[in-house]
Design a protein that fits this description.
Layout: H1 21-32, H2 37-47, E1 54-58, H3 64-71, E2 75-79, H4 84-94, E3 107-110, H5 114-120, E4 127-136, H6 146-153, E5 157-168, H7 177-186, H8 203-210, E6 214-222, E7 225-227, H9 230-238, H10 244-249, H11 252-263, E8 273-275, E9 278-285
Parallel strand pairs: 1-2, 1-4, 2-3, 4-5
Antiparallel strand pairs: 5-9, 6-9, 7-8
Helix pairs in contact: 1-9, 2-3, 6-8, 7-11, 9-11
Length: 287
């Protein structure tokens, strides 16, 4: 791929969870993020991502999905609004040689909102693909604000551009659901967000329709979560942020203990951890 350009903005100022943010970002990048590779591959194959694709990745995390799109020849822009540590790791992946000339750029990373994206690339062609690979549908309130965000970036895309949303599959097909229930057990039941809930069939369609998008097909992809051992599994799962509310309600040691116990049902004879899961994606179109 050609060299990349990274535009950095001020990090967010929200309270940090009681964890080592740098270590957590590394755990996501080195352990957990790869679990969704089959999903990225399936979506990119279906949409024929390649040269000529101009892709905007929302909630891009450590940038693995962007890197895969760029390796297919796509020009990519990644938005990571909430975690500067993840954004820094994405920069390491997408900008391996900082000495290369900026004029050759084919990628950008930012914490920007829609207005900032327009300001930093005023002459850019419209995006023809927008992705948000952050799965929704297993934590109460995890889709709040997503429709508004999609609606705000839709003007940056051309008419009929593909918008990809992702959600957890039904609990009976997601072995990890049994572990995610720990978050509900430990979180204050009076909280309105942060508790696990079963994924609903129309979660993705409802988000798309509220954003003014037109659903245009969907698919399911098997994404098993496999870990070298239970310790790696705990680190990977906690890096997702799905247990943050439980950590705030109790403490990290308690969450670590409870998650470790829940994982025992998925530990194989050789000590590895294996949890089959299914994720669903929706392709919607801008109007």
């Amino acid at each position: 791929m050609t060299p990349t350009l990274v535009r950095r903005h001020l990090p967010h100022t929200a309270p940090a969870p009681r964890t080592d943010l740098c270590a957590r970002a590394r755990d996501w990048a080195e352990i957990q993020e790869r679990m969704l590779v089959p999903l990225y591959e399936a979506v990119y194959k279906r949409l024929e991502i390649g040269p000529g694709t101009r892709l905007l990745g929302l909630d891009c995390g450590a940038g693995l999905a962007l890197l895969m799109a760029a390796s297919r020849g796509a020009a990519v822009t990644g938005v990571e609004p909430s975690d500067p540590e993840l954004l820094a790791l994405a920069e390491e992946r997408l900008l391996p040689d900082a000495a290369q000339p900026r004029e050759a750029a084919d990628a950008r990373l930012t914490t920007a909102d829609a207005a900032d994206l327009t300001a930093t690339d005023p002459g850019g062609a419209p995006y023809n693909v927008i992705t948000d690979f952050q799965p929704i549908g297993c934590v109460a309130g995890d889709s709040e604000g997503l429709s508004a965000r999609l609606e705000s970036v839709a003007p940056l895309a051309g008419r009929g551009a593909a918008v990809v949303l992702v959600g957890w599959g039904p609990p009976e097909r997601c072995a990890t659901s049994s572990v995610l229930r720990v978050a509900t057990k430990l979180t204050d039941p009076l909280r309105s967000t942060g508790s696990w809930r079963p994924a609903l069939r129309d979660d993705l369609e409802e988000v798309a329709q509220r954003a003014g998008l037109r659903p245009d097909g969907s698919g399911r992809v098997a994404c098993p979560f496999g870990y070298a051992d239970a310790e790696s599994a705990v680190r990977g799962l906690l890096s997702t942020g799905l247990f943050d509310a439980a950590v705030e309600a109790t403490d990290l040691a308690q969450v670590d203990k409870e998650v470790s116990e829940a994982l025992q049902a998925h530990v194989r004879a050789d000590g590895t951890v294996w949890m089959p899961n299914v994720f669903r994606y929706l392709i919607a179109r801008t109007r």
